[in-house]
Each structure stands twice: as C-alpha cells, then as structure tokens.
Amino acid sequence: MKKESNVNNESMEKMVSFAKRKGFVFPSSDIYGGIGGFYDFGPLGVEMKNNIKKSWWKRMVQGRDDVVGLDSAIIMNPTIWEASLHTENFSDPLAECRECHKRFRADHLEDREKCPECNGELIPPRQFNLMLKTFIGPIEDEASKAYLRPETAQGIFVNYKNILDTQRVKLPFGIAQIGKAFRNEITPGNFIFRTREFEQMEMEYFVKKGEDEKAFNYWVEERTKWYIEDLGVKKENLRIRKHEKEELAHYAKGCVDVEYNFPGIGWSEIEGIASRTDFDLKQHEKFSGQDLSYYDNETKEKFIPFVIEPSAGVERVMLALLCDAYEEIEGGRTRTTEKTKETEILLKLDKRISPFQIAVLPLVKNKKELGEKAAEVYQLLKPHFVCQYDEVGTIGRRYRRQDECGTPFALTIDFDTLKTEDVTVRDRDTMQQERIKISEIVEYFNNKFSH
Asked: Residues 164, 304: one domain?
C-alpha cells in the first residue's frame, strides 16, 4: 500500500541530508570541516534562491507604483550604527560554562545555572554584541573600525533623502532592497534557519502619522498573501503571531511575525512586520545634522514620516518551501506491488520557484538519432526556460530524479518523435502525459508558466 508523509512528521536532519545530496545547500568550506553558521548554495539552491528573490521583487517593487528599489553598501559609516543604537542595544545574553568553556545564548537555556553539554556551572550571563567588526584601510585601529551590516534597513533610512531628492515619490511610498546581512550569532543552528551570513528582503513603507495603523494591517495581509498565492505554501503551515509588549524592539509600536511550522523546530519566524514609528529617521536626522522631514505640497505640512517594515529572510523562506514541498512515498508512485520497500521523494515546489522548469530526456542514451533530436528540442527551449538535459539511467529513474529536484515538467523524446515531430510531456504532480508538437512546445510551456 502506498503511504505518503510530509516532512513535518520527520526530523530536520532528513531535510539537511536531502538538501546536500541534491545540491541545494552545502556546508561552507566543507572540505576543511566547515565553519559554523555559514552555508553555500549549490546549483539547485542558487536557482531556487534567485526565484524566491525574483518573486518578492516582482510583488513588492515591479508590480507596484508606490515602491522603488535600492541596493545599498554592506559596509557603511560606523556612526550609522550609533544612531540606530545597534552599538548599544544589538546584543544577546551570553552564558559560558566554567568547565568546558562552551558558550550559549542564556535566553535559550532551560536551566540558567547548568551547562547543557557537561552539566558544569555557568558564568552569569553578559551581553554580547552581534555585529561583526572589520577595519577600513591598512591600519587596524579605532579610527578605521567598521561593521558588516546586521540588517539592510539602515541603508534604506540613510538613502531616504536621496530618494526624495531624485524620485517623484509622495507619501505613502516604500523603498525596498534585497541584500546580505551579518550577525555574529552565539549559537547558530537549525540548518539555514539561523546563520551568521544571510540575505534579507526588506521594505520600509513611509506614511503620515495617524495612517500607520491602517498601513500596518494592510501589509500584514499583503505579505501573508505572497506566501500562499505566489509561493504555494500550505495555509495550515502558516500563522500570524502578534508580539507581546515585552517582546517589542525599542523602536517598535507594534510587530507581528509570519511563522512557519518547521519540522524539529516548530512554529518559527520567517518574516517580521513592524511598525517602527519615526524613530529611525529622527535618529539619523539628529546624528547627521541633515533635515529628513517630508514636505506635503497639498497640506503644506512638514513632518517626519512613520514607517512600516516587512522584513523576510531568504534562507528561512527557502527552508520553509523545501519542508512544505517535501513528500516521501513508500513503495513509489508507479508501483503496483506491495513487495518493494523503495521510497520515492517528491518535491512539490510551485512551478514558479522550482530550480529547473523543464527536464529534457531522450528515451535511451545510446541512440544517436534520439540524442540529436533531444539536443535540438533542448536548444529550442533553453532561451525561454530554465532547462536540464538528462540522459543517464533508465527513463523511470530519470523521472524520479527530476521529481526529487522539484522539476514540474519532464519532456521525453522517443522513437515516435522522429516520425511525428511530437514529444511526451509528463506532469510531476499528476504523472499525466500528453503528446505535444515540437513546433508548439514553446507556446505550450509559456501558457503553463503564465498562471
């Protein structure tokens, strides 16, 4: 009997192994034993990450008239981090064991006095700043000290005046960017959920004071739609959690998390939506001496706008999508007997997010005429779609290999193709097959990927 199970019933370790085996995610510096909190993204992983970022950018910037894009520098003037209070407040409580000297986040420990590794005595917690330091220029002294940015938001705030001066924007409007951020986490973990180098997709939406609550509620709803409508996340695996008053950041009037139910982790944040008030712009106005107020031509008012910030982590979203799409099918989908113990993996990624869109498969490898025709079809499709050519192994094994990669369509060139100039298209999810003329194949797939 066929049995299906979602990864949410399994441990995260299975996903870690799968992601490496298929070329989604590798430990960074793997041949040297790795480096904690850093990961590399393989051929499938980089395609998937790019598709997630493209989807976000299309919905948040290209599909709107009230948001513009930005790409700010990773290293900025260090005074920025004083103004934002990162040098003062951006820290976690660090606990260290007197015996084994291992270090932990104190707020993640059930017993604040005993080491979870050796049961030794813990030194009382002290605050540890999470920003990674570096130096600019040839001399490493206090004057040349700088930081790798811990968030992309401040790059937006310090470019707010440049956007006002160069673009025809008026409230409400947003500034969006996707970029790297770095945090010197005490205890990175849970695979790519908590790392020291990651990418953020952030937008700061500027509104008039008094209109911020309406805008906040709008963006909570809008951001939830993206996960369900554009990424295909199952509704039952998503929830919105409102922050309690004691959880709020020092700048926040309100905040909610979009949470996903991860295997082995449980409900955890993949995106935060915060009402940041006018804190950031007022701080940068104070520290820079620049006028960062907005002048309303209609009301003749001059004021500092309030800000709503949706902020998502690319890697966390990717991990949620992999977990959401992963299925194991005991006995295989095409088996008719209960004797086999073989388990097939099906990665039901949304076709807009899958690393490859189409696999081109000659029926058998060592037939020159099939290989030539398959290469012809591959070259026809490649300018329009992200394709993979695969001729190694039996056709059934190649189908299963593409199912594991999340490829939504497999296209097979067989001996009938040589006579009729049509090919077999197989749907990953339904396994239904249909014959399509080669002359119509680009239009056919354009229709498939357009909705």
From this structure: yes
Residues with Cβ within 8 Å of residue 247, at least 6 apart in sequence = 255
Looking only at the bridges linking them, the beta strands covering 173-182 and 67-69 are parallel
Q: What is the pLDDT of residues 346-371, one digit of tens each?
A: 999 999 999 999 999 999 887 888 88
Is 98 among the domain residues? Answer: no
**DSSP SS3 for 136:** coil
Residue-number span of the structural domain to which 181 is assigned: 3-74+148-322
User: 127 in a domain, yes or no?
Assistant: no
Flag whether 191 is in a domain. yes
CA atoms of 4 and 338, how far apart (whole Å): 14
Are 194 and 65 in a shared domain? yes
User: What's the predicted TM-score (pTM) here?
Assistant: 0.90
Are 262 and 320 contacting, i.e. CB atoms less than 8 angstroms apart? Answer: yes
Q: Give the span between the Cα atoms of 220 and 217, in whole angstroms.
A: 5
CA distance 419 to 427: 23
Overall domain count for the chain: 2
Q: At what angle do helices 441-449 and 368-381 cross, to 10 degrees?
A: 50
